[in-house]
Amino acid sequence: MTDSAQDFSRLARPGGHHLAYVSRPGNRGGNSPTVVFLGGFRSDMTGTKALALDIWARQAGFAFLRFDYFAHGASSGRFEDATVGRWIDDALAVIEAATGARKLVLIGSSMGGWIMLNIAKRLRHRLAGLVGIAAAPDFTQELIWPELSAADQATLKRDGRLLRPSRYTPEPDILTLRLIEEGAEHLVLDKPLDLPCPLHLLHGTADPEVPWQLSLRILEHVTAPEATLTLVKDGDHRLSQPSDIERLTDIVAKIASSPTR
Questions:
Q1: For position 26, which CATH number holds?
Q2: Considering its fold, how many domains does the chain have in total?
Q3: Residue 110 bears catalytic tag
Q4: Does some domain include residue 98?
Q5: Active site includes 207?
Q6: 145 is a domain residue
Q7: Which terminus of the chain has fewer CB atoms gathered within 10 Å of its CB, N or C?
Q8: 130 domain residue, yes or no
Q9: What is the per-residue pLDDT for 167?
Q10: What whole-number percentage of the chain has pLDDT above 70?
């Protein structure tokens, strides 16, 4: 399954920017939730998990939304101008524009798990369920800054930006001091988080990017009607193998099909 540019809808944003998104209606009636995929850092809505969930949602009859954050994929913007707060606002804007008042099942992959938990604080009245895949809340403070060498920290402070090799793309990751500093305004693990819906976390034990212990911290940190952590032995960060996708869609199907809470 592939997408071309004409398949994307575009949402106008401040400063002349736009966000690209794909929204598909379901056929299960008005009480059925919309499933929303929130991608990771430098990922886009044409990734393996996003497309697999789109196919599953079509077959199962659920409404579905996937999109690209500012400076990701088919959306506009320079990555150097991006912040976590901007990405949270992007997600909220697209959800408002594309899902109406329907209940939501949010699926957050890596950084998308952080975005998901921030959205949960603002849209708790609409939540039907949350699914985290190698969720990385607070990663600017929890993972990036502490792992930088003293020399890299000094470069970031001096120049305001730092290039680092990426495991997943030929182009290096661009880190900015603004991204790190602004990320501190959106932390979720610094205070209790009360969720009104089920939470299911998936994490690979061989994840080289986000240690699985971070998902355990999330589980211990939140209160929810149901909270589950599934560890995938030897699973990597992406969890995009066929068996991973089958596991993910089974979890999403169970949550999305449950009676609306």
A1: 3.40.50.1820
A2: 1
A3: yes
A4: yes
A5: yes
A6: no
A7: N
A8: yes
A9: 77
A10: 96
